[in-house]
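User: I'm putting together notes for a lab meeting next week and I want to include a structural view of one of the chains we've been expressing. I don't have a solved structure, so I'd like a prediction I can at least talk through. The sequence is below, exactly as it appears in our construct file.
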Amino acid sequence: MKCPYCAKIDNKVIDSRLSKDGRSIRRRRECLGCGRRFTTYEKLEDILPMVVKKDGRREAFNREKITSGIRKACQKRPISMTRIEEFVDSLEAHFQELGAREVDSSEVGEKVINILREWDEVAYVRFASVYRQFRDINEFMAELEEILKSRQEKAGG
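Assistant: Thanks for the context. Below is the predicted structure for the 157-residue chain, given as structure tokens.
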């Protein structure tokens, strides 16, 4: 492992800890060249399915792309990065456990949209407007009416 400060390769591990979820190991290292310390993470290489897009293209399952989309939807909303990361972890684990070589992008998108609907109506609508590609204000209003109807049913009225 190359030191991020002096680029020397010689270093030693001074502490190792298993992550909370048990899927990675955090290692504190000390550079033998400059003496500075840095952290690395070691994890099992993920075997995730290819995502089949609506137009038939295939791309690798991209955790960062999913996280970024959720973060944008949740911007300035009361949803922590920890909660987002935990959800993306569980999503990644779900698709690993499926063992499928390919998964439709709609399956990934529906899992995201469903969790956002539970978390926060504003984040849900933001994500849905991009994901469902509303063509006009009427489609957008229909989605908002569905949320209001659902909220009224939950309130018992």
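A couple of points you could mention at the meeting. The mean pLDDT is 90. The helical segments are 63-73, 81-98, 105-119, 121-131, 137-155.

User: Perfect, that's what I needed.
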